[in-house]
Amino acid sequence: MDRELTIWTPVIMCKLDEARYLVLERSYEIKSAFSRIEYLKSRLKECKAEIQGRNLEVLIVIDILSLGEENSGKIGLKTWEEKINDQIPLSEMGYYDKLDSREVECHVKVLRIPVQGGIENGELKVIVEVEYSAFITSYQEVYLNIGQDMSNINYGLEEAEKVLKEKMAKIEGENHLLRQKLFLYEQDILSLKKGIKKAEKRNLELRSELNYYKSLLLQNRPDISTSDTSLNLGRRIKKLFSAEQ
Predict the structure, then answer these.
(1) Closest CA to 121 of 30, 26, 56
(2) How far apart are CA 80 and CA 45, in angstroms?
(3) CA dist., res. 130 & res. 25, Å (int)
(4) pLDDT of the residue at 208
(5) CA gap 136, 10 in Å, rounded
(6) 176 - beta bridge partners?
(7) pLDDT digits (tens, 9 = 90+) for 15-41
(8) Does residue 233 have a pLDDT over 60?
(9) Which of 135, 163, 177, 241 has the most CB atoms lying inside 10 A of its own CB?
(10) Dihedral, CA of residue 176, residue 182, residue 183 and residue 187, to nearest 10
């Protein structure tokens, strides 16, 4: 059996077909405050709109944030507030007279506000791009017919549950394979560590043997310097005895 559900909700009555794009150029006097700019950014502070006559009056307030290096070498922050006013003919939004008798709300959605600039002749010159959309809503009753396709809804839920279970089973299988690979990798790493430790131990043994053989060679090698000294001493004694005779 069909059931009808009524809700009270805002509905978009008219809007801009395309986003609105504005470009603003501004200059701010900084004198000797900054020697160079390190960081420049815009920040949305407020946005609103209201109907005035046959136009939509838009107000967007932003802050221009500038982080720069002062002449003293310190980093300083300066902020400037910028108010952006725009006017949109309601005809561009598909606004029609029947809305006049309703209580409407105007909305502005800022999409992007990039800023760029630099110091020139003691001034900070910036270019701000503003891209935004606007729409008008009105509260009204919305009727929803539910229950006429409950069998289809139940079938859809069952299908979704089935698909979800299949995906979970697939993921579980993939996780099992990953766990097996991880185990094999851990075993390989463990074997590699054992091999490195064994090689280090063998290297230490070889070094010890090498040092041992070096010490044996040093002990068995004749002391040439001692032999030469003894020989020279013998010649001097022989020469001394010959002179006395």
Answers:
(1) 30
(2) 11
(3) 11
(4) 84
(5) 10
(6) none
(7) 998 999 999 999 888 766 667 777 888
(8) no
(9) 135
(10) 160
Task: Provide the pLDDT for residue 130.
Answer: 95
The per-residue b/e assignment along 21-48, b for 16 or more CB within 10 angstroms, e otherwise, is: eeeeeeeeebeebbeebeebebeeeebe
Q: Which of 107, 102, 109 is nearest to 138 (CA)?
A: 102
Where is mean pLDDT largest: 128-132, 159-163, 164-168, 182-186?
128-132
Sequence spans of domains, the chain: 3-148, 157-218
All residues at 6 or more sequence positions from 187 whose CB lies less than 8 Å from its CB, including other chains: none
| DSSP per position, the chain | --EEEEEEEEEEEEE-SS-EEEEEEEEEE-TTS-SEEEEEEEEEEEEEEEEETTEEEEEEEEEEEEEEE-TTS-EEEEEEEEEEEEEEEGGGGT--GGGGGS-EEEEEEEEE--EEEEEETTEEEEEEEEEEEEEEEEEEEEEEEESTTHHHHHHHHHHHHHHHHHHHHHHHHHHHHHHHHHHHHHHHHHHHHHHHHHHHHHHHHHHHHHHHHHHHHHHHS--HHHHHHHHHHHHHHHHHHHHH-
Which of 10-14, 146-150, 193-197, 223-227 shows the highest mean pLDDT?
Answer: 10-14
pTM, 2 dp? 0.55
Measured between alpha carbons, how far is residue 130 from residues 37, 87, 89, 106, 245 in Å? 22, 14, 18, 18, 123
Residue 223, pLDDT > 60, answer no
**CB-CB neighbours of 59 under 10 Å:** 14
